[in-house]
Amino acid sequence: MALHMLVQFPLILIAGWLLAQGLSGKTRARLKQWNHAGISGMLLASMVLMFWMIPRALDIVLTDVVMESWKFISLALAGAALELSWGPAGMIVRGFFLGNVLPMMMVVGWLYIEAPVRICNAYLTDDQLRAGSGLLVFAMAGSVVWLLAFFFPQNNFLEKHASNQ
Amino acid sequence: MRTVLVSAIFLVLGIWATWAITGGFELLTTEQARRLDISRKQPPVPGVRLIEQSGQAFRFGAWVREGNKYLIVDFIYTSCQTLCRSLGTEFQRLQQRIIEHGLQGGVHLLSVSFDPAHDTPAVLQQYARHMRAMPEVWTFATVGDVRELDVLLKTFGVTVIPDRLGGFQHNAALVWVAPSGKLVRVADFGSSDSWLNELKRQN
């Protein structure tokens, strides 16, 4: 479960992000018409991430091949959407995205740690605990980076990345 | 304008997907889904071959219908140190209740082991004695054929995963089976009492 949420999910997201970098300028321009200020892309990414934090979704991919495929497709799409949208998105859209995903990660992480029972039937209890702690760490690290980026925009890797394009 | 359109589509898809996975925003976990599923669909007990502690074999489905009693089923393994102990305690308590109410003719308890390799009839017999189980109220059994275990666990919605200490982790709950052989309800610890009282009133 911890490997699933904390290693595999981010890796698929990064794969999607890298794939999107290979898109030609023409395709980007065309996509941009549908993605003003990165709004659609950020919305897609936040919904995909929130969906894959539902405990039942994590259980179901272990037994259902169709859902397993959707996991790869949707997370890769979310990664690609983030790459295409992060640059054009302003503070408000980014804030909307992070303000959705980070608190959700904290709540889910806290739930996994504090729950008296196993929330997922297909994973062990200590695994649930690890996943929960990891989510909390990710969410807190994300919040800190976001705050730093807010106050010191020059230091933000993503900002630089966006301006390089 | 196009952005609004695409965003709206994404939003609808996202809400639809969440609605689907949460059974219409009713549940978040597989365990909740399992319980709702059993009480709604009421699947029949599979006809798998079980072996009870005396070594006698029987077909599960037919056995329930012939017994013509309500059955309360839990899933255990005898070398378990944690969850099965509380299941055992709960069954001891229910056994007591059934005898107090004089419901031996209407309700029966069944503990099924999902570890047939270790839990032979002899081991089950010993475990039953250890739990002070009375054979006329409480039966211990395991599957005759390991390949049939999957069907059984799937019907009852029990997920068993080996932990790294040689044991298992599994979801625990008591499943009520009607005399007709259908699974009717998944009960938590303590919540079977009201049903027993109900049955007593009907008798």
Question: Could you characterize the architecture of this molecule?
Answer:
The complex is a heterodimer of chains A (165) and B (203). Chain A contains eight helices and no strands. The N and C termini of chain A lie far apart (36 Å). Chain A has 165 residues and is mainly α. Chain A has one domain. Chain A is globular and about 50 Å long. The longest helix of chain A is centred in the last third of the chain and has 27 residues. In chain B, α4 runs parallel beside α7. In chain B, the strands form two sheets. Chain B has a seven-stranded mixed β-sheet. In chain B, strands 6-7 form a two-stranded antiparallel ribbon. In chain B, β4, α5 and β5 form a beta-alpha-beta unit. Chain B folds into two domains: 36 residues, no CATH class; 161 residues, Glutaredoxin (3-Layer(aba) Sandwich). The model of chain B has no long low-confidence stretch (mean pLDDT 87). Chain B starts with a helix and ends with a helix. Chain B is an alpha+beta fold.
Core attributes:
heterodimer, A: 165 residues, mainly alpha, 78% helix, B: 203 residues, alpha+beta, Glutaredoxin, 2 domains, two-stranded antiparallel ribbon, 7 helices
Total domain units of chain A: 1
Question: CATH top level of the largest domain in chain B?
Answer: Alpha Beta
C-alpha termini separation of chain A: 36 Å
Order of helices and strands of chain B: HHEEHEHEHEHEEEEH
